[in-house]
Predict the 3D structure of the following.
Amino acid sequence: MQEPKEIFVDTSRCTACKTCEIACAVAHSKGGNLYAALMESPAPKRRLYVEWVSPDKHVPVLCRQCEDAPCMHACISGAISRDERSVVVTDTDKCIGCWTCVMVCPFGVIGRHLETHKSYRCDRCPDRETPACVSSCPTKALIYRTAEEFSHGVRRGAASELVSGEGK
Amino acid sequence: MAADRADYLVIGGSAAGMAAAQVIRRQAPSSRVTVLSEEPDMPYFRPMIPYVVTGRKKPEEIGLQGNGPYTAGGIDVRTGSHVDSVDVSRKSVAVKGGGRLSYGRLLLATGSRPYIPPEIQGTDAQGVFALRKLSDAREMARRAGDTNSAVMLGGGLLNLKATFALLERGVKVTLVVQSPEVLSQLMEPGDAGLIRDALDKAGLKIVTGRSAKGIISGKNGVAGVSLDDGSEMACGMVCIGKGVRPNIDFLPGSGITIDKGIVVDKNTACSTPDIFAAGDVAVTFDPVTGKRIMTGLWTNAVEMGRCAGYNMAGKKTAYAGTFGIMNATQVADMPFVSMGIVHTKGSDHEVHVRASGSTYRKVVFSPDGERLVGALFVGDITGAGMYRYVIRGNMNIGRIKPRILDGTLHYGHFLKG
């Protein structure tokens, strides 16, 4: 089986422009474009959150698809499972809005649709090759790769830094 | 006939037992895993039974197998199997109606049953319920169709869920609560204002500071309830929600150490080799208070059951314990989360409360103010899990304290560097 891709965050590149948040909400709207999304009710919700850490760091926070996902095991209605993409998904038909998942998610990334009384979270954009947030990020702070590819990139970056350091 | 034997035998087919069985199947795929459940139904999501009362779900729609994380096959579940006794020296159990099963390793996950206060007279009348099993839900659903009024004894979360199920069925409901306010286990009376308002708005009648003396019955079972102030209330059904007691009746004489529930070490192991316990029946500990506790929460039972499963399959895993108080739900249109130490009257904890017209937020710190020990969020529960993480980890909160106070904590605050 091919290793699933993950969304990685390079916080050094994030400028908190929040383009990803808008792209996420639009991607999860009925109309699928910004203008239609603005008029929709219930308002489309973003599923990642660009947060600020004092003094000058910005961190896009989103579902990490935990290996032993606490939300999945805690769910009292069997609504949360892992799909064939290895993504933790909430079945809205089964969700009863008890918010147990909200209580146990250590990342604080499970939202609540108050209108429909259902929880929601990053679904990794099942209909897209690349999640909307990643495609939209103008500074490439969001990276969609397998863990292996990502760590390879990190190692290569570190190595080239070492080499350039030695040259000095 | 060869003796019936399971490599891993689980007594109890609910949250803890099934979560353990799933883990064991995955850790030891070729082993024989047998679950004995005394209920006639195959394992199901117990917290969903109020939806069977309302009719929103059919019993077969709340089954465990194949839903959520319960996808491992090959677990031999035997329903209608009540265990009478455990013989630890022969490593076998006796099943009611004859039959004996031997085991390599045993999990005791028999859960708990409703506590029916003996001082209430006449609780064996037809139409008196304690909503615990799917079979109770079926009967309650039937009774709800034949009556238009119910009295609920006890103001805990479980009874509130039963209450809303009956309200949805068009039954008039009166809730009789001995405490000064509903949900007294999960919050102090002064914290329950918003929830009380929501309950009142939902059309529920609440009587506090009263308890039931007896059930009045007529030819169709329940006809009313008599209270300790001498008053009587007419009703067609009664639901008792007065807490639960662990199912340990089959254990005395077995040699397994019991102290109210089954005593386990940090790896969920009992005092006797190759025997483990998890869920409502097990005595665990609260990482905040350090006290030994028993809880009756699905989510806790699953977590502890999974931990037991790993230990049984040979992967040593410590259970991190759980809060004596922990629950999340929504009553009427008001969501809330309560966790850790939230009862602070007369204690020297550092308490901060922020309230608005639609939200109530109480955070409780250790007396020195350096650790978060409890949180109650009503109305807005955003990010509650992060606060749970901080409480459970006994973290020194230092620079994130202002964020905890104003509710702006986010995961970025936990990142280093």
Notes: The mean pLDDT of chain B is 95. Residues 298-312 of chain B form the longest helix (15 residues). The two ends of chain B are 66 Å apart (CA to CA). Helices of chain B lie at 15-27, 49-54, 134-146, 157-168, 193-201, 298-312, 384-392, 401-406.
